[in-house]
Give the backbone structure.
Amino acid sequence: MTAGRTLGQFYPVTSLLHGLDPRAKILGTAALAVGLFLVDSAAGFLLISAVVVLLVAASRIPPGTFVGFLRPVAFIVALTALFQVFFSREGELLLEWGFVQVHEGGLVRGLFLASRILLLVSTAALLTATTAPVALADGIEDLLSPLKKVRFPAHELAMMITIALRFIPTLHEEAQKITRAQAARGADFSEGGPIRRAHALLPVLVPLTIGAFRRADELAEAMESRGYRGDEGRTRYRELRFRTRDALALCAAALVVFAGILL
Amino acid sequence: MRIELENVRHVYASGTPFEVEALRGVSLPVEPEEVLGIVGGTGSGKSTLVQHLNLLLVPTSGRVLVDGADARTIRGGELRGRVGLVFQFPEAALFAPTVEEDVAFAPRRLGLSEGEVHRRVGETLGLLGASHLAGRSPFALSGGEKRRVAIAGVLAMAPEVLVLDEPTAGLDPATREDLLGVVRALREEGTSVVMVSHDLDEVAEVADRVCVLENGEVRAVGAPEEVFYSHPTTAPSTVRVVRPLRGPHPEVGRPVRFEETLAALKGLLEGRV
């Protein structure tokens, strides 16, 4: 009945990180992400890893749960890292076994790449786990609002993100219902090869798509009947407030990034 | 075919903060060739209960017996063919380009010959009064027509037990009456029907036995007159009319169905004149 914890799911507890302004968190995450691409030393990666561990502790998300968030990318990280290790021919030869060769450069590159991806995903997971979807969308809207002057639909974009996020659990539940209804009619989603299995999914995907369109129509009508006219003259129930601690957090993030690059 | 739930418990999201105990030890038989009505408020566990009848949900503890044998020993596909389950708002799962194709889906999955599939589709659509819709797209039908087609999609497997979860929710009165007629016809042919409903009046019309669920437990089960006349909060309108008359006029008896009640009241009036 309940969706498993997946990447990008909000984890509702109160913590220092949960209390920060979403704009500070978005900018901080962006800074760390850019920084991660520029860091190129073991010391730099160690520093940022330490900071991420501290942030996870500050978010009061149980470490086990947080590691669970990263599980979906584990395979890709392992695969790309192994590619680097086995196919890079730089530096000293460390190991040779048949045609397999492991060079020092490859090993270092593989480790760096794995750390880079894992840390990137960790910071993104921290952002979405500590920021309610609505706050996240509000933050994005606010950060993009200067672009409204050049007619960039910042409000509409944020509204679309909010609605999309809101409908993930709804569609998930709907998919489960339809899956069970088709299972009751003898549908089997586990037998046969990939093509047969994809074909077996049609009885679920068709009604799910039709349902999504119907929902979209109903939602649009419900919004209009409540007077929604888009951005014009719209006020917010929750105003965003950028406090001193948000500024401090942002400065700290910038400092970490600079230190990481310089190290 | 006789299905028996034996002390079935079901816990959703076990071991998480969202844990819910939907069924707390339910024991209930579904006898051959009967219409069993299951009633109870929202959240009483009705929908969870019926999904155990074909093991779409597996009990957290307890057993489901089919003709005395543990249902888990029967192959999933076979069990689902023998116990047809129609979910609430089954029209949400229509998917094929034509009504005929959609109804043929389940019997085809049973591995029947094309001729037999075709015969069953025709027969089932006929029973549900939807033969004229066979060539149309299921998405272009009215709500009532969709419901008929969706129910046909399960009935085409010719199950020994048909389970209907709120089959008449949101339907127009004419389609509702037709569906209750189908339930009666199926019972005449020897198919058991389990019908979950919020509408006590329609349960009163078709049920041979009634089970009242409350908070995941069986609060009462038995003949309709037993259940409806002993639980004041669970009574169809016929019983609500007759019950106050039983004090001064015990001879009115315990009618439940509309026709019975009408006859009993007529008898009462004629006796007074």
